[in-house]
Design brief:
three-stranded parallel β-sheet; Transcription Regulator spoIIAA; five-stranded mixed β-barrel; alpha/beta; 14 helices; about 20% strand; binds iron/sulfur cluster; 4 domains; Rossmann fold; about 425 residues; about 35% helix
């Protein structure tokens, strides 16, 4: 979401006459967007804020320094006291709000007549994936998660605007589209008649744009229905990537996490999605060391991961996030070493299972989008977002190509372009 926000913001600043520079010493405006989902990301933000203290341009002047996003939302006053050299603190990162605040604080923008309905052309080069944001914030309230507090309640972007942004991306040459929301399946529940409109959102995008590949992220398993599997997951222009965060294989821990589904639902809906979409590429998030997780619960997660068969997984050890329901109710009783032991075991096992599953692609021909060409080597990505390394001969960044996969690791493939 942060990358999508910054892409959007960069496009708007470009349209207002700005240009991105590689060296902050050449910038008039430096914006630092922050993430608080993991403690490590938060520490990185503090360290970066500290480094900005001595930033000066060639003529000795300082650029306008802006700290924004989730970390600011959590502790604006402490940050303002600790890093006095920053000029502006914004406790959000949605582009409309940031731009409005910048117009007050940054003279070059205040004089411009910005188009409120501007849809990003997004030729910013910040990210190879092309995003539109459909939902900001989240209403779900998982016990361990800071997002509802840091990013606020769910706000749906109007369908008309999403379509206009997607069409602008298409005109600008984006080869594919990713539609984003913390729980994208809940689209529609906070606007208009409050009915779920995820299917309508995706079917309108399919009808109103010509993208060959459309991806949606992220899906809360409890909201994935058979109708969505039939109408969206199975659609040939929707990519086979389904990111469906399981988090734990223990029903008791899932309930303590307030995830809103159990293992029976997860198993059943994944089986149905695979029936609708035999080439489904299933990825997940797994969180070990939740405060109420016992050794037996952790074993249940290992069993579930093996049984369900994830093609890839993002795996984390629980870290207490102040202000969350889990922090208030349970604290963080498990020793860090124990959480890390569980995490390392899970990563090792999942890597083996993922590697075996990904071997099914060896010898297959897959369409890819070429992302970079660097001398003799190109990096492309499949419709399920797996990097493929291949000889660059004749390939151009931004184009589709056909590759034959020659080897498959968990995190990337190698292949050759075929006619
Ligand atoms: S669905 Fe749960 S984990 Fe995801 S953003 Fe919302 S509260 Fe956080």
């Amino acid at each position: 979401m942060n990358v999508a926000d910054m892409d959007d913001l960069a496009a708007r600043l470009n349209a207002a006459g700005g240009r991105a520079v590689d060296d902050p010493r050449q910038a008039d405006l430096v914006m630092v967007n922050t993430c608080t989902v993991r403690a490590k990301a938060e520490e990185k933000a503090y360290s970066f804020f500290g480094e900005l203290k001595h930033l000066r341009r060639a003529d000795g002047s300082r650029p306008l320094l802006v700290g924004m996003g989730c970390v600011v939302n959590k502790q604006r006053e402490e940050l303002a006291k600790r890093f006095k050299h920053l000029d502006l603190w914004l406790d959000f990162s949605d582009p409309d709000g940031v731009l409005a605040a910048l117009r007050q604080a940054f003279a070059p923008l205040s004089e411009l007549d910005l188009d409120a309905e501007f849809t990003p052309a997004l030729d910013t080069g910040l990210s190879p994936l092309r995003f539109v944001t459909a939902i900001r914030g989240c209403n779900h309230g998982c016990a361990y998660c800071v997002v509802p507090r840091a990013r606020g309640p769910q706000r749906d972007v109007p369908l008309k605007r999403i379509i206009a942004e997607a069409q602008a991306l298409e005109r600008a040459g984006a080869p594919d589209l990713a539609v984003l929301g913390q729980n994208i399946l809940a689209y529609g529940t906070t606007s208009g008649d409050r009915r779920r409109r995820f299917i309508e959102l995706m079917e309108t995008l399919l009808a109103e744009t010509g993208f060959r590949w459309i991806t949606y992220l992220t899906s809360l398993p409890g909201d994935l229905t058979e109708e969505i599997c039939e109408r969206i997951v199975a659609h040939p222009r929707i990519t086979p990537l389904l990111h469906l965060p399981l988090q734990s294989g223990s029903d008791r821990v899932l309930a303590d996490m307030r995830r809103g589904y159990d293992m029976n639902h997860y198993r059943r809906i994944v089986a149905y999605a695979r029936q609708c979409r035999p080439d489904l590429y299933l990825t997940t998030d797994l969180l070990v060391g939740f405060p109420t997780e016992t050794e037996a619960d952790f074993r249940a997660t290992l069993l579930a991961a093996e049984e369900i068969g994830f093609d890839d997984a993002f795996m984390f050890a629980y870290s207490e996030r102040p202000g969350t329901p889990a922090a208030r109710k349970y604290g963080d009783p498990l020793p860090r070493a124990e959480k890390l032991d569980r995490l390392h075991e899970l990563i090792a096992r999942q890597r083996e299972w993922g590697k075996l599953r990904n071997h099914r692609f060896i010898g297959q021909r897959l369409a890819v989008i070429v992302e970079h060409v660097d001398g003799a080597v190109a990096v492309a990505r499949t419709s399920f977002n797996k990097p493929v390394h291949l000889p660059a001969a004749g390939l151009k960044a931004g184009e589709y190509a056909l590759t034959e996969i020659t080897s498959a690791k968990v995190s990337s493939f190698a292949g050759n372009a075929v006619p």
